[in-house]
Design goal:
Oligomer: homotetramer
Largest interface: A-D, 17 and 17 residues
Number of strands of chain A: 6
EC number (chains A, B, C, D): 3.1.2.-
Order of helices and strands of chain A: EHHEEEEHE
Pfam families (chains A, B, C, D): 4HBT_2
Helix content of chain A: 10-25%
Shape of chain A: elongated
Organism (chains A, B, C, D): Halorientalis brevis
InterPro entries (chains A, B, C, D): 4-hydroxybenzoyl-CoA_TE (IPR050563), HotDog_dom_sf (IPR029069), YbgC/YbaW (IPR006684)
Number of helices of chain A: 3
Radius of gyration of chain A: 16 Å
Protein name (chains A, B, C, D): Acyl-CoA thioesterase
Structural class of chain A: alpha+beta
Chain lengths: ~140, ~140, ~140, ~140
C-alpha cells in the first residue's frame, strides 16, 4: 500500500458502522468509489470532464480483501493508482488504512470500462486520459 | 397507527444496523420513502405513471418521531396515507411498527410538492391522482 | 443559518446521489448526524467521552425542511447549535448549505434524549456537558 | 446462475439508485450480504444461531462481476450456495438477476471466516453448520 498515492481521506460516520461495532464491509466499495473520483480530480480529469468529453465509466469488477476493522470517528486514508489500461478497460489498485496505528483495512482492485456517453457501448479510453494518468503516477500503468 | 393502511413490509438488513445494535434512525427516512412509493403503486398511480403524466415529486419536509428500536432480521410493516392535499403540495402520515410485539418504531409526516417534469416549478397535483387517493383510502384526505 | 457555527464539511459522494441526479433527501439525516458528532468533538465532549461518562444519546425526533438540491462533488458545510436543553432532552438547530453559490439545502432540528448507558432510561444531561455547550456557543441554549 | 438456489428477493429502492439512473454498484454487496443471511435462515442455522453457538462470521473477500443494470422498482432475485468449506473459511457463489427479462446483473463470490465469538480468532466451522449446508444444497460444497 506504500506505493499507492493517497487521494482521499475520511472520518468514519456513525451510519457506516454496523451491529458488530465496525464499518460495514460494503462501505469500502463506496470508499473505493470516492477514492477513484478523487484520483480523477487529482489527475485533472474529473468525472465532469469525462462527461464533457462524451464518455462515461462503468464498473465491471470489484475485488476487495478485508484485512482489518475500523470504527466510528476513525480517520482513514485511501490510496489509488491505475495499474493497467487496455483498449476500453482499466484496472486500478486500491487500499484503505488507518494512519493512527498504520493498520491496513482493505485492499484490492476495481475495473472500469469506458463507454460511449450516448450509446453505452465500450469505447477507447481517450489519449488525454492516458496521458493524465502517466503524468500523475510515478509508475506508469501497464498496457493490457 | 391502526388507521394507516399497511403498504410496505421489510426485514431489517445487517447493513441498516449501527454500533448501538439497532436500525440507524436515518434509515427510517428510506423506509418512509419506500412506503410512499408502495402507496403510489397501491393506488395504481406509481412513480412511473407520475413521470409519464409529465410531473415529478419533491420532498420538502420530513418530520419523524422515534418511538422504539428494531434490530437485524426484525420484520417490520409500514403504514401510509395522504392526510391533506393542497394545490401543489400534500402531506402524508407514516408509521413503522413490528407486528411480532406490536411495537411502534417511528411515526411522522412527509410533505411532497408536485413539480412540472420540465421546469421543476410547482404545479397542481393532477385530478387523476386526487381521485386515486380518494378511491383507495377509507378516510379521504383533507383539502389544505 | 448564518448564526449556526460551521462544524462539519463534506463533498457529495456519488453513492449519495439518486436517479433524480441530486443528493437523496434521506442522506441529510446522516449529514445532520455527522454535524452533531462534529459539534460534540468541537465542544470537547465527543461521543467517546459520553460513553466514558456512562450515558448515551438517542434521537427522538428529526424535522428537516428541504430548501435546495446538491449534486455529486458539491462541497457542503453544516451548521449546528444546541437550542434548548431540558432535564434529559435537548433540541438542536441544523442547516446544510453550499458556499459556492450560498444556497441553503436543508435546515431543521434534531432532538436527543440522554439515557443511562446501562439501563437505557432517560437521565439528566450532565452539567459538564451543559457547561461545554455554554462555553462553545455565542448564544447559550434556552432552558426547556 | 441457474444452479444457485434462490434465497432472497427484493424490489429496488429509490435510495439505491444513483445519478446514472441505475442501482449503485456498491449496493450489490449489501444484496449479497442479505442473500447470505437468507441462506443461513434457509438452512436453519441463522445469524442468531451462530451467535448462540459462540462463533461469529467475518467477511475476508468480496469479488463481484457486474453484468447488467437494474433500476427503481425492478424486482430482483438472488441465488447463493456455499461452494467450498475449509477448516475455518468458506467461499460462496452469489448471483443477482431480474426475472422479468432474465438479465444477469451481478455474480461473484464472498469468502467468510469463522471466528471465536469471544477472542475473534479463526475457529473451525462447526460440524452442525457443515451438515446443515449439505442437507440444503443439491451439490455439496467442496472441501478446501
Amino acid at each position: 500500500m506504500d506505493e499507492l498515492p493517497v487521494v482521499w481521506e475520511n472520518r468514519v460516520r456513525f451510519e457506516e458502522t454496523d451491529m458488530q461495532g465496525v464499518v460495514f464491509y460494503g462501505n469500502y466499495v463506496t470508499f473505493q468509489d470516492e477514492a477513484s473520483s478523487a484520483y480523477f480530480r487529482a489527475i485533472d480529469y474529473s468525472y465532469g470532464a469525462i462527461a464533457e468529453a462524451g464518455w462515461d465509466i462503468h464498473v465491471v469488477n470489484v475485488d476487495l480483501d478485508y484485512r482489518g476493522q475500523a470504527t466510528f470517528e476513525d480517520e482513514l486514508v485511501h490510496g489509488f493508482r491505475v495499474a493497467t489500461i487496455g483498449e476500453s478497460s482499466m484496472t486500478s489498485e486500491y487500499a484503505a488504512w488507518r494512519p493512527a496505528d498504520d493498520e491496513l483495512l482493505a485492499e484490492g482492485t476495481v475495473t472500469h470500462v469506458a463507454v460511449d456517453g450516448e450509446t453505452g457501448d465500450p469505447t477507447r479510453v481517450p489519449d488525454e486520459f492516458r496521458e493524465a494518468v502517466i503524468d500523475f503516477q510515478e509508475r506508469p500503468p501497464e498496457q493490457a
